[in-house]
Design brief:
The protein contains twelve helices and ten strands. It has a four-stranded parallel β-sheet, sandwiched between helices. Strands 8-7-9-10 form a four-stranded parallel β-sheet, sandwiched between helices. Strand 9, helix 11 and strand 10 form a beta-alpha-beta unit. The N and C termini lie far apart (73 Å). 51% of the residues lie in helices and 14% in strands. It has two domains: 145 residues, Rossmann fold, CATH 3.40.50; 143 residues, 3-Layer(aba) Sandwich (Rossmann fold).
Length: 309
């Protein structure tokens, strides 16, 4: 009988789901993904962790709970450092231990810490071995999955470039993928903008090879890898869009720092910061978005009149 691995639809899922799914598929391992986030997901997760935990972690725990009893393992990776001299948020390094102490269900994990010479490739080999596969099988599965992941990223980037050519209002949503794409965090924002016929672009659809160049104007020594990618993408796209929305989960330490740097150093474009927490009301969110869109439209109109003169 095939092994089944549960994938919580939260946190790193939105960055690595193509790699994970394809790796397991190559090995003949079945996967099950938790359903999109609802308020019930959040309420369940809130009961598992302390009040001070960030919204994204509370949601993650709700997704883990929804998978218990439905699979042989639940995937919870431990990511500490994916680039030398940089770190990830401590939530990612402590997530495995936190989950293991909350749930008694079998947890599958892999560890990435390049400063300790534990890279992604070796991590996936060990994970494959845990599931009973040979090094050769795991290596082949990883390389095929990595190729699929790169092709998907290229397709998304090509599509984003097509959207940039459109003449209607364009707004860039900036944040971690788990904030941008989670139904409860960023989903309400993107859904509203699309309903208003606004072209929505995403900061994670960006060529990461440009990060060392594009991040410098905002920060020359950003410590957190994922926030470094975010500010580089924002700087890259800032002149190609009409407005920028920063989306964060409360209370995120790295985001609070990087967002403050962005707001101080990026000028000449309408920009707002939206921090989602468990008490946010949809009505208040929509009111802010309506005002922001009105501001962008007035600015474009005024700019058009000025240019015509």
């Amino acid at each position: 009988m095939a092994i089944t691995v549960g994938l919580p639809r939260a946190l790193l899922y939105y960055k690595y789901h193509v790699l994970w799914k394809e790796f397991f598929k190559q090995l003949g391992v079945q996967t099950i993904v938790s359903s999109p986030t609802t308020k019930a997901t959040l309420e369940c997760g809130k009961k598992k962790v302390i009040d001070e935990a960030c919204l994204a972690v509370k949601i993650f725990m709700g997704h883990v709970a929804s998978l218990v009893g439905k699979c042989d393992y639940i995937l919870v990776p431990r990511l500490v450092c994916v680039k030398k001299k940089e770190k990830l948020c401590t939530n990612f390094s402590g997530l495995y231990d936190l989950t293991k102490n909350i749930f008694s269900t079998p947890i599958l994990h892999y560890n990435v810490d390049v400063e300790q010479k534990e890279n992604e490739f070796s991590a996936f080999l060990k994970m494959g071995s845990t599931l009973g596969f040979s090094l050769k099988q795991s290596a082949q599965a990883y390389f095929n999955a990595k190729r699929m992941e790169e092709e998907k990223k290229e397709d998304q980037l090509d599509y984003q470039h097509l959207l940039l050519r459109q003449k209607n209002l364009k707004i860039l949503l900036v944040g971690h993928p788990y904030n941008l794409y989670d139904k409860l965090i960023g989903g309400e924002i993107s859904d509203y903008l699309k309903k208003e016929k606004i072209t929505v672009l995403y900061s994670d659809r960006y060529d990461l090879n440009q990060v060392p160049i594009d991040c410098v104007p905002i920060s020359k020594d950003m410590y957190w890898t994922y926030n470094k990618e975010i500010i580089a993408s924002l700087w890259h796209y800032r002149k190609q869009v009409d407005g920028i929305i920063l989306i964060s989960s409360f209370p995120c330490g790295p985001d609070s720092l990087s967002n403050e740097m962005i707001l101080r150093k990026v000028k000449g474009i309408p920009m707002i910061s939206i921090i989602r927490d468990e008490l946010n009301s949809t009505t208040g969110l929509i009111t802010r978005l309506e005002s922001f869109i009105d501001l962008i439209k007035e600015r474009k109109y005024a700019y058009g009149i000025e240019r015509s003169r």
